[in-house]
Amino acid sequence: MPQSVDRALDLLDAVAEAPGPVTAKALARRLDCGLSTVYALLGALTDRGHLARTPAGYTLGYRLPSLHRAFQRQLRIDERVHEVLLRLRRVSGADVFFSTYRDGEIAVVDGVTAPAGSAFSVGRDPDAHATAHGKALLAALPGAARRQYLAATGMAPRTTRTLTSPELLERELRQVRRTGIAVEQEEAASGMACVAVPVRTADGALTAVSAALPVTDFARLRDPLTEALRRETAALR
Predict the structure, then answer these.
(1) Domain of life here (predicted)?
(2) Cα torsion 90, 177, 167, 128: sign
(3) Which of 33, 47, 167, 218 has the most CB atoms within 10 Å of its CB?
(4) pLDDT of 48-74, one tens digit each?
(5) 58 near 23, Cβ under 8 Å?
(6) What Rg do the C-alpha atoms of the chain give, in angstroms?
C-alpha cells in the first residue's frame, strides 16, 4: 500500500478513536508524522467529507454515515435487523449487536447501545473466541473453517478469564451447538457479560444477535434476556 494511503487511513482511524475533536498537532504526535504531512492529509480527507474541521479540532465527517449505510446495504442488512435491535434495547436495557461471518472474518455490523457508549463496538472482531457472538458464529462453522479462523487470529487473552485453549473452546462450542446459546462472562471485557444466539437467515448467511450487560446484572437478567433474543430473532430467519 502506498505510504500516503496508509498514513491517511491511520489518520482516519486516529480521529475515529479519539473521544472528541483532535488537533492536527496531536495527530502528528500520535502518528509520529510531520505536521505538514498531517495537514495535507487532513485537507484531502476534509475535502472529501471523511473528516470535518471544528474550532476544537478534527472529527469524523458527514460522508461516514452514508458509507456505513452503503456497507449495510452491500451486506444485505435490512431494516428488520435494526428494528429487532431497537426492540431488544427497549425491552432489556442491554447493549445489543448484530454480527456476521463472511469470507473468513467475523465482524459486528450493527448495534444499539446506551448514549454513553459500550464496552463493545461495531467493527471487525479478531477475538471471536472471547465474545458471545463470536462463539455463536464459530460453533456454527464447519470444523475446518473454524480451525482456519482460529489459526489466523490466534486466541489472545482479552482478560484473565479469556479461554486461550483450543480444546477448552471446542468443548464450549459443542455446548453452544446443543443449546443454541453462547455466553461469556468477563472474557472479552472486565465487568461485562454477554449472551448471543446464532441466526441462519433465509439467504443462508451466518449471523448472530447478542446482548451485553454489566456482569452484576447478568445472573438476574440472563434468562429473560435469552428468551427475548430467541423471540425477536425468529423474525430474521
Answers:
(1) Bacteria
(2) negative
(3) 218
(4) 999 999 999 999 998 887 877 776 666
(5) yes
(6) 19
The pLDDT value given to residue 66: 81
Mean pLDDT (the chain, rounded) = 89
Q: How far apart are CA 28 and CA 30, in angstroms?
A: 5
The DSSP result for the chain, as a single string, is --HHHHHHHHHHHHHHHSSS-B-HHHHHHHHT--HHHHHHHHHHHHHTTSEEEETTEEEE-THHHHHHHHHHHHTT--HHHHHHHHHHHHHH--EEEEEEEETTEEEEEEEE--TT--SS-SEE-S-GGGSHHHHHHHHHS-HHHHHHHHHHH----SSTT----HHHHHHHHHHHHHHS-EEEESSSSTTEEEEEEEEE-TT--EEEEEEEEEHHHHHHHHHHHHHHHHHHHGGG-
Burial of 176 (0-12, 13-18, 19+ CB in 10 A): buried
DSSP-assigned beta bridge partners for residue 196: 182, 210
Can you read off the three cell numbers belonging to residue 222? 440472563
C-alpha cell of residue 62: 458527514
Tens-digit pLDDT profile for residues 121-175: 778 888 999 999 999 999 999 999 999 999 999 999 999 999 999 999 999 999 9
CB 46 within 8 A of CB 53: yes
Tell me if 165 sits within 8 A of 215, measured CB to CB. no
